[in-house]
Amino acid sequence: xxxxxxxxxxxxxxxxxxxxxxxxxxxxxxxxxxxxxxxxxxxxxxxxxxxxxxxxxxxxxxxxxxxxxxxxxxxxxxxxxxxxxxxxxxxxxxxxxxxxxxxxxxxxxxxxxxxxxxxxxxxxxxxxxxxxxxxxxxxxxxxxxxxxxxxxxxxxxxxxxxxxxxxxxxxxxxxxxxxxxxxxxxxxxxxxxxxxxxxxxxxxxxxxxxxxxxxxxxxxxxxxxxxxxxxxxxxxxxxxxxxxxxxxxxxxxxxxxxxxxxxxxxxxxxxxxxxxxxxxxxxxxxxxxxxxxxxxxxxxxxxxxxxxxxxxxxx
Length: 315
Prior knowledge:
Low-confidence stretches: 5-13, 31-36, 303-315
Radius of gyration: 23 Å
GO molecular function, one term: GTPase activator activity
Protein name: EVI5 isoform X1
Distance between the termini: 79 Å
Keywords: GTPase activation
InterPro entries: Rab-GAP-TBC_dom, Rab-GAP_TBC_sf, Rab_GAP_TBC_domain
Strand content: under 5%
Organism: Olea europaea subsp. europaea
């Protein structure tokens, strides 16, 4: 074997980073776990049956979706709550959000927005791009295709909606969408969400002062007090308010620092049923961790009181 072939062989044998089934690089500590658990024949066949049901429901390119939705909304809701098949997720998200209709009604608009000359928000977008899903192979390479696509979508939206422009946190939403669809599709789904193609418009999440975030946090605080009164009382005593832990839940709809497979299931339901799923998941998280949160903040409060007493003695 000549030197050129040896070099090519060695280059080809370089160990690639191990990734999970969604494309996120796995930590070395978990490398022994394998890339993914192999499916049994029964699980594989069950998933194939599920995909066939979904394909029949949506039709070719989504042609049967609206008809099926009108006839059997309860079936659609049940299947979405069970989880959309990953291979169809991008298309279904566009159908249930109304973004596919927006794209068809606005041919060529996205391309014009991308090439529009502007300096507004560009530096902020560029600065934040490398922080968006940094462990995903699509976004890891500096100036790579993933980062370029993310920049284009965010820049196009900042031009499209001058009142909102670009706000930190939008990158995780756009990044999530780009993992399942093209730039143009991701842009129009972002428009559908913020402008309210199906549900109430969510642009207030990103307007100056984040008015919709403040409204949701106020409502969430009251829900905690109503449904988890003991925890609500402890939070009040420790002066812990939802803005200290729940803002990102609403701004990114759990796409930031949340297990990705769970975030996808939340997004399936969120796009169909609206923002109420964020409230439900948030309450479920607090309920699940109720005892630990009460104990932790109670212990922290005692420690702070003891520390304050000690400082009082010495000062």
